[in-house]
Amino acid sequence: MKGLAYIDSAIILLYLTSMVVVGLWVGRKGRTSDYFMSAGRSLPGWAVGLSIFGTYVSSISFLALPGKSYSSNWNTFVFSLSIPVTTWLAVRFFVPFYRRSGEVSAYSHFEHRFGPWARTYAVICYLLTQLARMGTIMYLLALALTPMTGLSIVTLILITGIIVIVYTIIGGMEAVIWTDVVQSIVLIGGALVCVLILFLGMPQGSGQIFQIAVQYDKLSLGSFGTSLSDSTFWVVLIYGIFINLQNFGIDQSYVQRYFTARTDYEAVKSVWLGAMLYLPISAVFFFIGTQLFAFYIAQPDLLPVGIKPDQVFPHFIATGLPVGIGGIVIAAILAAAQSTLSSSINCSATLILCDLYRRYLRPDAPERESMLVLRIATLLIGTAGTLTAMAMIRVKSALDAWWELAGIFSGGMLGLFLLGIISRHARNAAAVTGVTIGVLLICWMSLSPNWTGSWAFYRSPFHKFMIIVIGTITILLVGLLVSRFTSYSGRR
Asked: Which residues of the chain have pLDDT under 70?
């Protein structure tokens, strides 16, 4: 690869080749649709746990979290502090709920509670959100790796997309899990190597990092005030609780992994391992940003003038790492991206089969036909995600707008899920009313900050992190209120 030493290129090529080999090795076994979607429900908890961890971390986290702490402080790390609470809720309620249901789709129970519209609404929101997510990850990954590798953005997007599609379409969910295991190990190793190199690179020793960090208040977790307009400690913590409830409760990428574990105990263990591993590793990413700030404050001549915070870590990887180490770190960034991408592709294909094809077209589709649908869906979703990433090169602003809209529509899913879980009396009317009012409120909170002129008076006063919080609570409360009213009217 132009721009890289031969040994770095060799490391990256070895890593990419190994991902395809894993897919081929797993794919040698006989395949059924259930095996493709849930890996035969026979995997050990530790492997599933590393896969859940890999789903948490994308290449965006690998690059963006250091950028956050470099430019400001550790305020966003408070998101990770919410994980123990939501993990307990997940293993106490969500994992048993889904494993008892026996249905690999996270959204089939929506139909049982509220009708076909709720199931289809959730599936479409998930699919569109995953396309936007895949496109964002692949595009920003290529944008970061271009200066490091010398390859064009289009070439990097194609390489990433093709390799992920190949091992996912061959090996299914088991390939996703086992490649996630390798990718998670590479990711953690790459991050720890960066920490060590930055420690060794300080002119006055590693202690200088902490001196500079304290001097510039880089370790702060944010204000402990009660304002809902600012990114305070409490706002980020509450935001983290709701986002992680959404992850564990209704995100197909997580729910589908609950079924891959061989026993209920292994499933619970996997969730604890994946979630609690993310807590310290996210701290490592934030610490890398703090280290980078201290590194370049102590040696300002090493940093180009005008460089953006999100570009500092890629600049350090390209210029500050020894030969061989750079290849490991770039492989770690690729691992973070591929883990998320393969999960999105496989889980989207699962929903296309279970919630669309079997639900509306061929309820009794035979095994061979189901496998064909899964593989075609995998190819189509992977290709669509790759094309979305390539489209971002020229129409980035349009896709950024769509990313925001995808967040708006998916914001109604958690409230709908909680309404179905909490209230036994809530029916279709309560769900439709709650989702409609909640999504309208979410739209207002998301779009009104951009209003100008006479409309500026109607801007949302809340911080953007409160959108999912207020939207979810609104859907739940409105749904409960309507269900109570309709239940009372029915008794009369």
From this structure: 1-3, 27-30, 59-60, 395-411, 487-492
Whole-angstrom distance, CA of residue 251 vs CA of residue 241: 14
> Which residue in 1, 22, 262, 313 sits closest to 155, CA to CA?
1
CA-closest candidate to residue 278, choices 76, 75, 81, 72: 81
Place of tokens 């990256």: 12
In tens, the pLDDT along 111-121 reads 888 889 999 98
**Which pLDDT score is estimated for 406?**
59
- pTM here is 0.88
DSSP lists the bridge partners of residue 43 as 261
DSSP conformation letters of 136-171:
HHHHHHHHHHHHHH---HHHHHHHHHHHHHHHHHHH
Return d(Cα 243, Cα 411) in angstroms, integer: 10
The H or E element that residue 201 is part of is none
SS3 412: helix
Exposed/middle/buried for residue 451 (C-beta within 10 Å: 0-12, 13-18, 19+): middle
Closest CA to 142 of 76, 59, 224, 70: 59
Q: What per-residue confidence (pLDDT) applies to 30? A: 54
Share of the chain above pLDDT 90, in %: 39
Angle of helix 59-71 versus helix 309-320 axis, rounded to 10 = 110
Q: Which two tokens stand for residue 355?
A: 């919630």
SS3 48: helix
Per-residue confidence (pLDDT) for residue 399, from 0 to 100: 47
pLDDT attached to residue 409 = 62
Q: For residues 122 and 6, give the distance between their C-alpha atoms in angstroms, rounded to a whole number.
A: 47
The tokens describing 156, both together, are 């990097």
181: left (phi over 0), alpha (psi -120 to 50) or beta: alpha
C-beta atoms surrounding 344 within 10 Å: 28
Instruction: Give the pLDDT confidence score for residue 403 in this predicted structure.
Output: 52
Residue with tokens 């986290």: 61
- Whole-number Å distance between alpha carbons of 266 and 255: 14
- State CA 27 to chain mean position distance: 26
